[in-house]
Structure formats: structure tokens, C-alpha cells
Amino acid sequence: MLQGRTAIMPELGRASSTRPGQQSRPYEDSPVDAVDPAGYARAVATQARRQLIVDPFSGELLRILSKRLDWEHDTTGGPALPVDVVLYMLSGNTERPHRILSNTQQLDDLDNYLDMASTTPASSQDQPKILLLQGDQPPQCLNRLGVKLKVDPRVYLRHLQYLWSNRPSKLFASPSLPSASADMVSLCVVTLGRHEPSNTPLRSLRQQAALDMQAYLHEAFMGRELKIGDSIVRGYWVHSQEYFSIEQEITVSLQYRNDQWSLLIWSDIARPLSSGPRGPWQHQRDPPKSLRGALLPSVRLSIARSTHRVPPGHEQTPMDKLGSSTMHALRSSLHYGNDLNPILMAIDPFYCLSDLFRTSAYSIDQLLKLVEGRIQENTGYRLSQSHHDSHEDLLYHQDILNKLRERTAQSLSDIRQYRHSWPKYTDQDQRYEVDRISDKLDKDFSNLETRIDRLLTRCREGMSMCMSIASIHGAEKARLQAERIGQLTWLAFFYTPLSFTTSFFGMNLADFGQKGGLPTWLWFAVSLPVVSVSYMALLLFAQYGRK
């Protein structure tokens, strides 16, 4: 029996699609009620204007999205534009028909393709399906899918965060409340990379990487060098002079139409990164000949996808040499069917995402191993020679771990929520298999969460140790300085009695050796007793102080 749930939607969520068994509530100018792509773009713009009045925060986000979707009017009636979409029909048998949709004309004829791809006598509209978007997609693609699948604009808002991540308005796109992101899943995928070691200071590398990443995101926002299907990078971290990592995202939305569900998956992982805008992973080091950046293969995917081959005619650049296998493997892991049961895929949408969750978990696991090695180098007996550099490196990785902690906790929450709330038509045996996989995902992400907490504790302890060492070094410097001042004090005290007698005999007295003046030997006769008494008093006071 179908198990569903009714989410409480905020004002922004009024445009959500109708769930099975629910009565639709008419809402004027709602994007899900649009009948054509241009109407969908107009509906989002209308909703943005309305939202700016009642909620300027979310209204500003919708306004940015509406500007992007409004490009639809500039190409209406023009030639078909390229897109990168893959359609999968979940027929419930061993066959998994799929079709690549490469232009907007094919998206317009999506219903016909659904009927052609259907392998059962039942209507294709009664079959679950998956639409996979790879890399950057034009507004014309988003508007057409919005009409065909009744997509809530919040789904696009969630995935397009990089468009306003570095804008002066500092808008925070991700809704923090569960009601504001119902039936949406965002997964973090991290890929490690390696440069040839550089003599540039680590701080300079990180500062330059931050500037280069801002420039990359600006180019992605402007879209001048970004082509359809190019991969998107959300974050770039420099872990050492040799290793770095990039962060990408996969956004999943469960859609309902005609009492049937479908999955809309939008992945940042598409073409090799060398084909998109230049980012910090491609910029030259000093000397220029050391540019040999490459992405390291994922441990799990390199084993599971060992049969993958690079397409013929694909010329490998230094950026692709190690990275292409990973990127193609990650992309092929989104081609459902190799590791999943096709029958279970057609009856359980959460089961369809299990491979995505595993991909995210294994990528985070690989990053944690690298971070753990860096923490080990900066703590304990292997503390770096400069405690200041160690403290800075630990603080840098603490920020990374805090971000991973948040993403891992969110993924764990999605697993525990959607494994029960999303539709299930499974019998007892099928449910056992789905629960077994869900339990493994829960255990994996719980383990990641525990490891991140442990590494965060080591970071805090390491930074405290660096601060303690800095305090000890400061105290040692103060002690040495006090010793030097003491030596200067002894030297000054040696001349103090002599200066006293010299000053005394120099006050309005006749010159030594002159007729009628004082004899020279008198100065020595007075100075010697004064100096002797002064030194004896100093020694007695010093001995008394030691007792």
C-alpha cells in the first residue's frame, strides 16, 4: 500500500505539486499550473514579485531565479538548444529503457518519448521515471521540465546556490527548516586532487585559491565560458602543497504527477573539469612547468567501475589523465541499473538513491582520511616546527570538518526520514532488502558523523596544544630576557659606587693635584671602602634572598 506524507509548506512552497490522494488547491499564477515554458517563467516572476512584498528574503532569491528563467522569452521560436538530460523508465521488470535528450525540441516531445520508452501495456504516465540532468543546464531546459514534471521552483533554488554564493547581498539559499525543503535531498560529493609539490607557502596557496574560486564562481554566474553540460564546482580546499579537494553537489527531488512519482536528479558531475571555466585546480604554480594537476580516482568507484573505458577519440590532457576516470565513473554511477535491483527501483524511490548516498559517503570517507593525516602531522610528537603554522592548518581543517559535519548530519536525517515517508509498494521480502540497504546507509553516515566529531575534537585539542606551546615559548623568551637584564644590572651596579665618589669629589672642589686642592690618593682612599661596602651589602642581600 502506498505510504506517503503531507508536508506543511511555507509561502514559498505553495507551488508544490499535488501528492497522490490530495486535492489540489488552486493558486493563481502558480508555476506548477503553467502550460508552456514561457508561462512557467512568467509564473515564477509573478511569484517573486508577490514574495518580495511578504518576505523580501525568499523573494530576492526567487527574483534571481526568475531572471535566469526569463531568458526563455529570448529564444522562443528559435532553433532547438542543446541540453544534457537522460530519461529512465522504471517499468518494474528486468529492462531499464533510457533515452538521452540532447535538445529542447526533444524535451517538448517528452510525452511521446515516454510512450515510446514504455515497455508495458500500461500508459507511460503510470510508470515511475527518473530524469537526470548533468552539469550546467540552460533556462529553456529548466522551464520545460518545470512544466512537464510540475517542478517546485525551490528545487531549482536549492541546486543553483552557486549563482549567488559570492554576491554582496549574502543571501543564504538553503532552507534550514524541513518544511521548506520537503522531498528534496542534497548530497555532497568530494574528489581529491594532486599537484606537483610547490615551494609556495601554504598560506599564499590558500589565499590565491580563494581568489581564484571567487573568479570561477563569477564566471559561472555570468555564463560566459560555461557551456551546456559543463561540470560545476562548489568548493575548493587546499590541504597541503601537494593535495587539494573539490566539492560538487547532487540535488534530488521527488515529484508527483497523475498519482505517480518521478525523480528529478541534477548532478554537478558531468564533463571533465578541463572543458569548463578555469578554476584554482588548473591555475599554474611556480614554476609554470609544474602544472600537472589531476583528480585522484575514488577508491570505491575505481573498483566497482573497473570495466569503464574512456570514449574513443578523447584526448587526455594533464587535467584529465587521472581525473577523467573518476569523473566518468561518477557519471556512470548515476546510470541506474548496474548495482540496483530494477524491480525495487520501480516501487521504492528511496532505493533508487542508495547508489548516490554511497557515492557521497565514500567520497567523504576518502577526504576524512586525508584530513586525518594532516591533523596527525600537526599534533602530538609530530608537531610541525612552527606551532603558528600548525595552529593555522588545524583551524583551516576545522572549518572544513564543520561543513562536512553539517552535510553528513543532513544526509543522515534524509535517510531516516525519507526511507519511511516516501512511497513503498514493497512486499515483505522486498521490504527486507530495502531496509537492509537503508540500514547500511544509516550505519555508514553515522560512522562518518562519529569520525568527524572525533577529528574535530583532535583539532580543538591540537589548537589548544599549539596555544600552550606558544605560551611556553613566550615564557621562555621572557625568562631569557630577564636574565639579560639581570646581567646588565650587575654591570651597571659595578660602576654605580665609582660614579658616586667621582660625582662627590667633583662638586665645587678644587681639582686633584692642584696647589691647594685635594690629593689624588684621597679619591682612591674613599672609593675603595665605598665600593667594598656596596658589594658586600649586595652579596648579603642576594644570599638572604636565596634563603
Describe the protein in words.
This protein has 547 residues and is an alpha+beta fold. Helices cover 50% and strands 11% of the residues. Strands 1, 2, 3, 4, 5, 6, 7 and 8 form an 8-stranded mixed β-sheet that branches. Among the domains are: 142 residues, Methane Monooxygenase Hydroxylase, Chain G, domain 1, CATH 1.20.58; 41 residues. Helix 13 packs antiparallel against helix 14. The N terminus is likely disordered. Strand 6 and strand 7 form a beta hairpin. The longest helix has 78 residues.
SSE blueprint and pairings:
Blueprint: H1 37-54, H2 56-69, H3 72-75, E1 82-89, E2 98-103, H4 104-108, H5 110-117, E3 129-134, H6 139-149, H7 153-159, E4 184-194, H8 202-222, E5 235-238, E6 243-257, E7 260-267, E8 294-295, H9 299-304, H10 323-333, H11 342-345, H12 349-352, H13 354-377, H14 387-421, H15 428-505, H16 521-546
Parallel strand pairs: 3-7
Antiparallel strand pairs: 1-2, 1-3, 4-6, 4-8, 5-6, 6-7
Helix pairs in contact: 1-2, 1-6, 13-14, 13-15, 14-15, 15-16
